[in-house]
């Protein structure tokens, strides 16, 4: 099956109905402020969409919204009105009595040319009006994507934030005994569906990361014997080595413009420094030059700064988080809590840095402001690491080993909504794609 | 000394001694401890073989948590390794650096590399030719011990000297 990551040509959105959502006075009545400290999930009613594929699509929409922790889908058994015409205004009173704040109706049909047509309407029950209505066309292979796009639209209309459901995750699929783990690159939808393998498992592969254009990933592989950083075109499977360095290269990430890969390069003395390589000119820039471990670099969204892990501070080799300019200037430590910090990742919104912290025999996933202040731990466990940001900067995914092997977990910025990501095998090193377009 | 008698009855052993005599190396082989004599119950390994190295010399050293310093016990092992490697010069050597699971993946790749380099540098300081030595880090990706407690972690924080090239 051909894997479509290109802009989804077959999906066309058009507003339906008279109302333009953004200009509605009812906005104030149906609003979920995700920036408040304690968000009560919004009760939302999502009856099965009409049409042969309708229920499948609305189930996916429901699952997305539920897993976000911001919505509480109401049990369908409680519904009073049976929706027969998804385009007609509902009987608002029937939905008020079950305390639905929002109602989503929709239908899915097949066009003469074989395409799927999916449409939805979002109703503000206590405002007695339609908030949004759109329809989408897609080919068969993109059924699930249509559902995710609808979920993103609803999420955005109600929270005012971009959604993150129409996204993918690249990760390392792990199988076999712990001392002989087979590790394969794999890619799937953010909800665990549509898994596809990108490597055969003969060589150890680690730390895949998406390019901003979503078409390629950079990762580390032992396929040549020496561990090296590679680029992989997802659709064609074409691979290439990044740079021609003598030693191990590892911990790669793209720059926000996709033009550079920043990574660690092992020096002959056993220490690791950070380099950036321009993918077009092939020129490399050294960003650190220390007799310490400098690794896990991650650019700020504007590319002007880099956050990284280093044990340059000494103290029995404990690693901490540092920030420097995009040219390597002015490196300074920002983590000062009680513990060992690593794997810093800059939020796509620019406001926070996610990290792994080892403290008190535990591994914690947390966030701090970019100056190191305001540290908050979102999740603790015996063994967990490697956060990656959802493109809206509101949810993190990481991997946790509770014994046996690692599995993927997501947690939102409140730390209260932790969700397992289903995978067939053990899974590690998740990296979230940007929003698909 | 029954073990030595048993070894000399082994045709493979006899053949190897003959080969070493030709290269002039055999005279340097002066058994001076129990391990050299193969008295640890695994002495069937042919001197100069990879098995001999692993079993009688010791192919690995261990590190303290988050450290790449060569401990005193490791210095003893590496001293034996250097002596053996200087005697059996037909081998190329790859030193694998490993870390336990109590660190993040990328940091542990760097830590394993640093341990491998420290091991390499120690062997070079004991006279092993630098051009015979390569290093590779496996981070925490290749544990030998797979329980989830301290006894395993200490076995996984290791550098393993592996032999390649002729004779292995």
Q: What's the domain count of chain A? A: 2
What is CATH's topology name of the domain at 49-165 in chain B?
60s Ribosomal Protein L30, Chain: A
Write down how many β-strands of chain A occur, each being a DSSP E stretch of 2 or more residues. 30
Main sheet of chain B, how many strands, which sense, barrel? Answer: 4 strands, mixed
N→C terminal distance of chain A: 20 Å
Q: What is the residue-mean pLDDT of chain B, rounded to a whole number?
A: 79
How much helical structure, as a percent, in the residues of chain A? under 10%
Query: Rounded to an integer, what's the Rg of chain B over CA atoms?
Result: 17 Å
Q: Please, could you describe this protein's structure?
A:
- The complex is a heterodimer of chains A (437) and B (168).
- By secondary structure, chain A is mainly beta.
- Chain A has two domains: 14-159, Rossmann fold; 169-432, TolB, C-terminal domain (Neuraminidase), CATH 2.120.10.
- Chain A is 8% helix and 42% strand.
- In chain A, a hairpin with a 6-residue loop joins β7 (168-175) and β8.
- Chain A is globular.
- With 168 residues, chain B is of the alpha+beta class.
- In chain B, strands 1-4-2-3 form a four-stranded mixed β-sheet.
- The radius of gyration of chain B is 17 Å and the shape is globular.
- Chains A and B meet through β22 of A and α6 and β3 of B.
């Amino acid at each position: 099956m051909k894997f479509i990551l290109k802009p989804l040509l077959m999906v066309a959105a058009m507003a339906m109905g008279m109302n333009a959502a953004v200009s509605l006075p009812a906005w104030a009545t149906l609003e979920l402020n995700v920036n408040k400290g304690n968000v009560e999930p919004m009760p939302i009613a999502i009856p099965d969409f009409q049409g042969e594929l309708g229920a499948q699509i609305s189930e996916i929409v429901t699952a997305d919204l539920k897993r976000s922790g911001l919505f509480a889908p109401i049990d369908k058994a409680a519904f009073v009105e049976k929706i027969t015409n998804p385009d007609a205004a509902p009987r608002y009173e029937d939905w008020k009595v079950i305390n639905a704040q929002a109602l989503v109706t929709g239908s899915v049909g097949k066009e003469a040319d074989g395409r799927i047509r999916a449409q939805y309407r979002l109703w503000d029950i206590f405002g007695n009006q339609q908030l949004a209505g759109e329809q989408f066309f897609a080919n068969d292979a993109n059924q699930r994507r249509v559902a995710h796009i609808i979920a993103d639209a609803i999420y955005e209309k109600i929270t005012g934030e971009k959604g993150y459901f129409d996204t993918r995750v690249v990760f390392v699929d792990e199988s076999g005994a712990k001392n002989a783990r087979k590790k394969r690159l794999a890619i799937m939808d953010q909800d665990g569906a549509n898994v596809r393998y990108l490597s055969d498992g003969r060589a150890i592969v680690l730390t895949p990361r998406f390019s901003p254009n979503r078409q390629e990933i950079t990762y580390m592989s032992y396929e040549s014997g020496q561990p090296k950083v590679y680029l992989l075109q997802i659709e064609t499977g074409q691979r290439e080595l990044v740079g021609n360095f003598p030693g191990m290269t590892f911990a790669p990430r793209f720059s926000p413009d996709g033009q550079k890969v920043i990574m660690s390069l092992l020096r002959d003395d056993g220490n690791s420094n950070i380099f950036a390589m321009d993918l077009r000119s092939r020129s490399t820039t050294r960003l650190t030059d220390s007799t310490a471990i400098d690794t896990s670099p991650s650019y700020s969204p504007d590319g002007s700064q880099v956050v990284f892990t280093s044990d340059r501070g000494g103290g029995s080799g404990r690693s901490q988080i540092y920030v420097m300019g995009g040219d390597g200037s002015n490196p300074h430590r920002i983590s000062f809590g009680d513990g060992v910090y690593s794997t810093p990742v800059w939020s796509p919104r620019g406001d926070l840095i996610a990290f792994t912290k080892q403290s008190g025999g535990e591994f914690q996933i947390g966030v701090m402001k970019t100056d190191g202040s305001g540290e908050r731990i979102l999740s603790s466990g015996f063994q967990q690491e490697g956060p990656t940001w959802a493109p809206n900067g509101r949810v993190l995914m990481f991997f946790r080993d509770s014994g046996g092997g690692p599995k993927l977990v997501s947690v939102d910025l409140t730390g209260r909504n932790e969700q397992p990501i289903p995978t067939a095998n053990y899974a590690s090193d998740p990296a979230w794609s940007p929003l698909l377009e | 000394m029954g073990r030595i008698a048993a070894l000399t009855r082994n045709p493979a052993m006899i053949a190897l001694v003959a080969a070493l005599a030709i290269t002039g190396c055999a005279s340097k082989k002066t058994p001076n401890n129990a391990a050299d004599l193969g008295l640890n119950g695994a002495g069937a390994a042919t001197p100069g073989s990879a098995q001999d190295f692993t079993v009688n010399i010791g192919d690995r050293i261990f590190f303290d948590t988050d450290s790449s310093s060569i401990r005193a016990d490791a210095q003893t092992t590496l001293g034996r390794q250097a002596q053996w490697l200087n005697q059996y010069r037909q081998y190329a050597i790859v030193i694998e650096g490993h870390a336990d699971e109590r660190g993040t993946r990328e940091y542990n790749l760097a830590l394993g590399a640093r341990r491998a380099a420290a091991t390499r540098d120690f062997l070079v300081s004991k006279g092993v030719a630098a051009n015979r030595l390569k290093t590779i880090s496996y981070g925490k990706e290749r544990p030998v011990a797979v329980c989830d407690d301290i006894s395993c972690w200490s076995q996984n924080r290791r550098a393993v000297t592996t032999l390649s090239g002729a004779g292995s």
